[in-house]
Amino acid sequence: MPLWLGQQPLVLASKSDIRGKILAAAGLRFGIRPAQIDERAVEADAKVSDALAAARLLARAKAMAVAAQMPGHVVLGADQTLAHGSARLTKPASREEASSQLRILRGRTHELHSGLAVVRDGEVLFELVDTARLTMRDFSDRFLDDYLDMTGDVALTSVGAYQLEGIGIHLFDRVDGDYFTILGLPLLPLLKFFRDSNMVDG
Questions:
Q1: Boundaries of every domain in the chain
Q2: Residue pLDDT, tens place only, 19-68
Q3: For the domain with range 10-196, which CATH number is right: 3.60.70.12, 3.30.1360.170, 3.90.950.10, 3.40.50.300?
Q4: pLDDT exceeds 90 at position 177
Q5: Orientation of helix 141-151 relative to helix 95-105, angle to 10°
Q6: Quick one: CA dihedral 181, 187, 188, 193, positive or negative?
Q7: From CA 189, how far away is CA 186, in angstroms rounded?
Q8: Is 79 an annotated catalytic residue?
Q9: What are phi and psi of 147, to 5 degrees?
Q10: Is-above-0.90 flag for pTM?
Q11: Of residues 17, 50, 79, 141, which has the active-site annotation?
């Protein structure tokens, strides 16, 4: 018997490969329809600058945007933001920007805020933000250059210029928080919601 009990597959409003892999590994039946929103404009309209609030806002905005195009479907939106003290980092646009971000983060602790929202027909059924704290080791400039050589453009696909599930793990001394939260999708509370709502067999 399939785990997903919904009449229609879950819809993931994200183009993130890792979020899709997480849902697939959990045995959920889903489709992918990335949200087409201007994230910076959404934040500006809502006057949001706090990283945690931004993760919540953007996850909801993505889910709402896709749900408006897919009546009756359960849509999952997700977003992740990175806070370093009072500063906030976004995905680097170039190798130089990735290098700059990693120089800022090395030897220090930063926070990842992973937000999700489940929406159907304009109604928010469930949402949350979970936070993890990660401490980078004080790696050398040589290692930094080698790391960016090894990762190439992949470093530009994630906030902070790293993927913990790959060679990015070599950047860190300590990780405090849920592994799925760090990957960008707080899976355990999401699955509990689905079970409690009879969307997943449990």
A1: 10-196
A2: 999 999 999 999 999 999 988 888 888 788 789 999 999 999 999 999 99
A3: 3.90.950.10
A4: yes
A5: 140
A6: positive
A7: 6
A8: yes
A9: -60, -45
A10: yes
A11: 79
